[in-house]
Amino acid sequence: MNEPARDPGLQPERTGLAWSRTAFVTLLFSALLLRGGIVHHEPLLAWAGVVLLAATGALYAWAGWRLRMTATLALTQGAPVTTASTWVIRITTLVVALVGLTVAASVLYHGQLIARLAALMR
């Protein structure tokens, strides 16, 4: 007996949009790190911003690719989650955690970073 085709509905689009939003927020944070690192002569923050900016570009590219692949796989095979998906999620989590640790190390090392970032927001 033939099984009916799986109807993915809007789930692939919602997932793709969620990844795009994540990439956009990551882009904003990387810009803030870059600016803070350059303006206040903090090379550690500037490098963290560069790494996060590169990760953001990769995340944007992957989000678009995943949206297309998820929609295609859901219509043809019924299995939208791929091995690449789980690895990208792991790598993204690792990059965000490393950047967070870098910022925390900079705060502990310099002690005045929060005041400097607050001054940038004014």
TrEMBL record:
<protein>
    <submittedName>
        <fullName>Uncharacterized protein</fullName>
    </submittedName>
</protein>
<dbReference type="InterPro" id="IPR003807">
    <property type="entry name" value="DUF202"/>
</dbReference>
<dbReference type="Pfam" id="PF02656">
    <property type="entry name" value="DUF202"/>
</dbReference>
<keyword id="KW-0812">Transmembrane</keyword>
<keyword id="KW-0472">Membrane</keyword>
<dbReference type="GO" id="GO:0012505">
    <property type="term" value="C:endomembrane system"/>
</dbReference>
<keyword id="KW-1133">Transmembrane helix</keyword>
